[in-house]
Amino acid sequence: MRSLTKLMAASAVAALALTGCGRADEDTPTDTASGGASGAAEAFPKDALIGVSLPQKTSENWVLAESLFKDGLAEAGFKGDVQFANGGVGEQQNQIQSMVTKGAKVVVVGAIDGAQLGTQVKAAKDSGATVIAYDRLLLNTDAVDYYVAYDNFEVGVLQGNALLEGMAAKKPAGPYNIELFAGSPDDANAKVFFDGAMSVLKPKIDDGTLKVVSGQTSFNQAVTQGWKAENAQRRADTLLSASYSSAALDGVLSPNDTLARAVITSVKAAGKPLPVITGQDSEVESVKSIMAGEQYSTINKDTRNLVAETIKMVQALQKGEKPTVTDTESYNNKVKVVPANLLKPLIVTKANAKEAYANDPTLSKLTQ
Ligand code: BGC
Fold first, then answer.
1. Which CATH code for domain 152-300?
2. What atom of ligand 1 comes closest to residue 59's alpha carbon?
3. Residue 286 and residue 301: Cα distance in Å, rounded?
4. Ligand 1 lined by 227 (C-beta under 6 Å)
């Protein structure tokens, strides 16, 4: 564990601002399936109902997760109830409640707003179900048993480093003019991504290497409500006309691919040269953009692995065993530290795209 993690563990409830920025340094499980002595009773039937409640389709990873969960749960012998909550928080609340009523033994939640599902996940726990937070942490509740996600803080660190490297490759010496974009403030991940990136960028802002010309350096100033492309595009339009009529924009921190492409659209419409711009999710259009030399970087968080790890957790629970946990200190949801299974994200630029997507049937075709 690095010191940030220790600090957070020590100041558990007090460290609200850092919620969820924890990290695990090891890839190896520290607490693997050990609870199931052979012959122990199954915790629930092999064909039990498993609920999966996904948020809005704000990026391709969520769409991919749907079919992966449906097929993976069916293959494992479970009855899957996989749903999106495109209508918003109220719909997601009803969805989880109905999964509980139908007798789901595990409820997997990718929350729209991680702080608004306390009542429903408590109902799930009260019914005897296990609650797994998927990709996004559930906040302000003790009714969450496990968290499975790519390491969000590390995603931000990788984005911050990529931004610096991309700008240095184009223009060896600073200062560099940059702007910062963050995700939706109701998504617990958004602040963690931003904090990870700022752990790299802030010292460079402080020493003058980087200049945020708009002056908008706080998370609250950088957020993009609902992770919506149109909101990022509108903000980029405003920033460009207000702060870049004469200054050159060298780089943009974008938390994901959808927003990166929105910023690129805005810059093109303004007739300016494209800055170095980061992303996340390895969306098809962004991988194409990277190969065409427009977007600079993305992050590979292979959804197939994340869903597979989640289903492995469900299988362990079904057998009455403890699922794999790689981190028991970092993910403080303001009520408890949630045991987490953290996967390692990978930075992808044009330089390593071929290798990074070699085993991805869709993306490997784009890197030939
Ligand atoms: C996910 C990102 C995604 C974003 C918007 C986040 O919680 O971790 O991968 O880009 O949501 O959908």
1. 3.40.50.2300
2. 12
3. 14
4. yes
